[in-house]
Design a protein that fits this description.
Blueprint lengths: L1 H15 L2 H28 L8 H15 L10 H10 L2 H5 L5 H31 L8 H27 L1 H4 L3 H14 L11 H9 L7 H7 L6 H28 L9
Helix pairs in contact: 1-6, 2-3, 2-6, 3-6, 4-7, 6-7, 7-11, 7-12
Length: 266
């Protein structure tokens, strides 16, 4: 366990060195958050209570999305590109000889990265949003603790999804196409573009049942107080179930894949 804690700490320190990239990300998240927030204000002016949110809650949802965007690596920038390249080049063979579990190694590093992204790229945009808009941020410490647990589960689900995408490189040898498709699916079905509670009928039910909803929609509802009591336990169970299923699928795919490692380029 100490090994994986060290790997997570290393992941945090690694991304903390990219100060210019972090500053650029903060600026981008803030500007995009302002654009989307004003769009939501106009939409909720026309449709008050849309999706079960009042306007302040809807705007809070926007800024939470900007805080979670890089942490969940919905647009890339996580471990997956590096892992795909190591598979393509054959360097993955070296990783398999390490006295460490491959999946846990990458999970620990990605959690360290995500922790930095939450702090480095998430706090400032939310602070700007709170200065410009009225946000429905909770005041109870218990709500923030419940939200933190939901965020941790969201990060694990995010990793598990991207790990499956990266492992596809064992067969495709180039994960660019699958990565782009996964990014598009993640942006839409996580609720990053629009809360999934707004989606009508069967589309909404399907979107809320897919694992991507565990990345933003569920943590947002926990933060906004939409999930309390048994509802909160249900939210955790939903996220944890998808984490177990996806991590298990990744473990199985890893087992199959590492039996046929393809080394290119000598």
């Amino acid at each position: 366990m100490r090994l994986y804690v060290a790997v997570a700490a290393g992941g945090f320190r690694r991304y903390a060195t990219y100060r210019t990239a972090t500053a650029a990300g903060v600026f981008t998240n803030t500007v995009f958050g302002l654009i989307v927030a004003y769009t939501y204000v106009a939409l909720w002016d026309e449709r008050p209570g849309l999706g079960g949110y009042d306007q302040a809650e809807a705007v809070t949802y926007v800024w939470l999305g900007q805080a979670m965007l890089a942490a969940c690596s919905l647009l890339g920038g996580g471990f997956e590109d590096e892992l795909v390249e190591r598979i393509r080049s054959g360097d993955i063979a070296v990783d398999l000889y390490r006295p460490a579990d491959l999946q846990l190694w990458w999970l620990a590093g990605d959690l360290g990265r995500a922790a930095f992204q939450l702090l480095g790229r998430g706090v400032v945009p939310v602070a700007v949003g709170a200065l410009v808009f009225e946000l429905a941020l909770p005041t109870a410490a218990g709500t923030w603790l419940a939200f933190g647990c939901s965020v941790l589960l969201a990060l694990v689900v995010s990793f598990a999804l991207r790990y499956l995408v990266a492992l596809s490189a064992f067969w495709l040898l180039d994960g660019a196409g699958v990565t782009q498709i996964a990014a598009l699916a993640g942006m839409f079905f996580s609720g990053m573009l629009l809360p999934l509670n707004v989606f009508p009928g069967a589309l909404g039910e399907l979107a809320r049942a897919l694992p991507w909803s565990a990345l933003l929609q569920v943590p947002a509802d926990v933060l906004l107080g939409k999930r309390t009591g048994y509802g909160l336990l249900g939210a955790y169970a939903f996220q944890a179930a998808w984490a177990v299923v996806l991590l298990g699928a990744g473990r199985l795919l890893q087992l199959v894949a590492t039996r046929r490692v393809v080394v290119q380029g000598g």
